[in-house]
Specification:
This protein has about 325 residues and is mostly helical. The protein is built from 12 helices and no strands. The chain has one domain.
Length: about 325
């Protein structure tokens, strides 16, 4: 899990950086179309090999759930992020706004999932928010993007929060490979339709564009989203979203190395504070959950069988089932 967590942070950060690189050669919608097309082709090829060993068919309810999650986590999240960066919002600033997600999730986790977030976790989440603000403060001061563009990362963050809760409230036994294939298919259909309607479907001929598009298809899409859902199933929603606090500092460091963006003492202090914040949240993780086991049914003893995804709390701590 530590290695998977590090890989998740790096893969997720690469999506912001790749969006900035690709925006130099093409419209954000064009870049997204040609990010999803090779991704879907790769997933379909892997799925064809897997189906030779497994004859399981998806239930209609599973398909509906994953189409909804894909719409929220691919179209609803990725499209606003790319449009924001294309409009001039710095990659670090976009990552900062995205990093507000853990605070939103921690606020909603009790009433929606029947889980408890302890005081030390709130302290860690608040410290992480301050750390992320310090990391990208310079970007906020120097940004030249129009004011409306800053609403796009907020919309993206809200959409990914919604996707996370849908996945937790409607758990399935679908494999990660099949789920990602459905998510990518939604991305191709919806964003492809937008591209055709706006005349932005045709890709440029530059080799640099294709290099970035293929990179985005493999690293942040296949790697980042695959690790996101796998970690969600194994370490829980609060700990996973705490890791997102590391994305903005990581993006800021990479931006300084790749694009010459400023890396000040405030950046270093924010990076350190964010690391301490994540440590606090992980050390005091007390979600009363059994990790959702992919590939298991709804029988006794599985997390999906409990409507609150919770271990049996003490009588004094008992929360109403969600």
């Amino acid at each position: 899990m530590p290695l998977a967590s590090v890989a998740f942070v790096l893969c997720w950060s690469s999506g912001f950086l790749g969006a900035r690189l690709g925006s130099h050669d093409a419209h954000p919608v064009t870049l997204l179309v040609w990010r999803f097309v090779p991704l879907l082709a790769l997933l379909l090829a892997l799925g064809a090999l897997r189906r030779r060993r497994s004859g399981r068919r998806l239930e209609p309810g599973e398909v509906t759930t994953h189409l909804l999650v894909g719409l929220l986590s691919q179209v609803g999240y990725v499209l606003p992020v790319y449009l924001a960066i294309g409009a001039g919002v710095a990659s670090g600033t976009t990552a900062l706004i995205d990093a507000v997600q853990p605070l939103v999730v921690a606020t909603l986790v009790g009433p929606l999932l029947g889980l408890r977030v302890v005081a030390m976790q709130w302290l860690g989440l608040a410290a992480g928010a301050v750390g992320v603000v310090l990391v990208v403060g310079a970007d906020l001061a120097a940004a030249s993007a129009p004011a409306w563009a800053y609403t796009l990362p907020l919309a993206a963050m809200a959409s990914l929060v919604a996707a996370t809760f849908v996945a937790r409230r409607r758990p399935t036994t679908t494999s990660p490979l099949t789920a990602l294939t459905l998510h990518a298919a939604v991305g191709v259909v919806v964003i492809g339709g937008i591209a055709l309607a706006t005349g932005t479907a045709a890709p440029p001929a530059q080799a640099s564009f294709w290099g970035v598009a293929l990179f985005l298809a493999v690293v942040p899409s296949l790697g980042g989203y695959g690790l996101y859902w796998a970690l969600l199933a194994r370490i829980g929603v609060t700990r996973l979203n705490a890791l997102l606090f590391l994305v903005a500092p990581t993006t800021a460091v990479a931006g300084a190395l790749l694009f010459g963006e400023p890396f000040t003492l405030g950046t270093a202090a924010g990076l350190l504070l964010s690391g301490v914040a994540v440590a606090l949240v992980l050390a005091h993780e007390q979600e009363r959950t059994e990790p959702v086991q992919l590939g298991r049914g709804r029988g006794a003893g599985t997390a999906a069988a409990d409507p609150a995804w919770a271990r049996e709390p003490s009588r004094a701590e008992r929360l109403p089932a969600s």
